[in-house]
From TrEMBL:
Origin organism lineage: Bacteria, Bacillati, Actinomycetota, Actinomycetes, Streptosporangiales
Name listed for the protein in its UniProt record: Radical SAM protein
Transmembrane segments: none
PANTHER family: PQQA PEPTIDE CYCLASE, RADICAL SAM DOMAIN PROTEIN
UniProt keyword annotations, A-Z: Iron, Iron-sulfur, Metal-binding, S-adenosyl-L-methionine
InterPro entries hit by this protein: Aldolase_TIM (IPR013785), Radical_SAM_PqqE_MftC-like (IPR050377), rSAM (IPR007197), rSAM_sf (IPR058240)
Highest taxon listed in the record's lineage: Bacteria
Length: 376
């Protein structure tokens, strides 16, 4: 989904996925892809070190791929070295499962950082304390999936496999990170509801947007990110006018907390819901150019993108002990997915794909900008 500043008319350049294509070190690869060429490696890798997770979230959109193994320590450290030797510019440690649960995660971070690869981390925050020194020094950004502003709501939607709530631990970890960080810290809030057989709401976190945003600022987060509720196929779920008004009213209050150190982010998915738009996003192109620039590596295969994680029809191959990343990539068919047919949900990189497709027909030189963010 495209992320924009809530309540402003501009898009921060770090959030402008189409604009990021014109960075000086990024554009040569983009231009090659626009003209149908393959790259020696993607520029960005979403890496799932493990499918294990220490939470038991009922609404987890990755439930179909959870607890189905992980890379061995030797293989994933070797993979980190393979990425370090490639032209990959950024790696996002994500999941799948909780990336910090892999016992080799420290070595992975160090190898990537020492190679000059920028590192992003999407985490539930429970294990940040075990890796605080590396994360504060080496991560370009860390985004913590919270989805609540109080312990009671957190435990409803993000129950722990431990005997007690992990909400206080995560808040503590985030505060420590905020006090020492070099990169950015984000507080992610996914709107969620549960319904009974008659369609009535039984549980919700919609009322807690303001509390969560206020907590994010108090912690020292750089941003609070609001995301819309999705179904298992990544389509937005329509909401009642009352629920939309409830969220919008809280966002209005949160805008009063924005300053130079804290801001709100919203997704195009929420805009779709807020405006009552069709959850289907038509795409008049059959090739996803971004699949050549960015890929998703998991213990159970390499896939064209996170939306298709675990989808065998979108699998590029397997990274076994006898296959290097370079070898897999060289024979991968990144056109295996047809966006017009297979990606009818709202895709975060739709506008970037449209931008790339239009490049060959544009006259004159392209105006490039200095590098600022490789996470295209």
């Amino acid at each position: 989904m495209t992320i924009t500043r809530i309540g402003t008319d501009r898009i921060d350049r770090n959030l402008d996925l189409a604009g990021k294509l014109y960075q000086r070190s990024i554009f040569p690869g983009v231009a090659d892809v626009a003209h149908g060429l393959r790259l020696p490696s993607p520029l960005v890798v979403d890496l799932d070190p493990t499918t294990l997770c220490d939470l038991a979230c009922p609404e987890c959109i990755s439930s179909g791929v959870l607890h189905k193994g992980q890379f061995s320590k030797d293989r994933i450290v070797r993979l980190a070295h393979e990425l370090a030797e490639s032209s990959v510019k950024a790696v996002i440690l994500i999941g799948g499962g909780e990336p910090l649960m892999h016992r080799a995660i420290g070595a992975i971070i160090e190898v990537l950082y020492e190679a000059g690869i920028q590192i992003g981390l999407v985490t539930n925050g429970t294990l940040m304390g075990h890796h605080m020194d590396r994360l504060t020094e080496m991560a370009s950004w860390v985004r913590v999936s919270m989805d609540a502003g109080t312990l009671a709501t957190y435990d409803k939607f993000r129950p722990s496999r431990r005997k007690s709530s992990v909400f206080p631990l995560i808040v503590h970890n985030m505060r420590e990170f905020a006090g020492r960080k070099r990169g950015a810290l984000g507080y992610s809030f996914l709107l969620m509801q549960r319904f009974d057989a008659e369609g009535r709401v039984t549980d919700t976190n919609y009322h807690e947007v303001y509390a969560a945003g206020a907590l994010a600022k108090d912690i020292g987060c750089d941003y609070f990110e609001l995301k819309a509720m999705l179904d298992d196929d990544h389509f937005t779920v329509g909401q009642s006018p009352g629920d939309i008004a409830l969220v919008e009213g809280q966002l209005a209050r949160l805008r009063e907390l924005e300053d130079d150190t804290f801001h709100l982010l919203g997704s195009s998915n929420w805009e779709t819901v807020r405006r009552g738009l069709d959850p289907v996003q038509p795409k008049d192109y059959s090739t996803c150019h971004i699949a050549e620039l960015r890929t998703t590596v998991t213990p159970n295969g390499v896939f064209v993108c996170p939306y298709h994680r675990g989808n065998q029809a979108a699998k590029l191959g397997d990274l076994d002990d006898d296959t290097s990343f370079a070898e897999l990539w060289a024979r991968a068919d990144t056109t295996v997915v047809n966006p017009g047919r297979d990606c009818r949900f709202h895709c975060a990189r739709h506008q970037a794909n449209v931008e790339i497709a239009a490049l060959p027909g544009r006259p004159g030189p392209v105006r490039l900008v200095d590098d600022f963010d490789p996470f295209i």
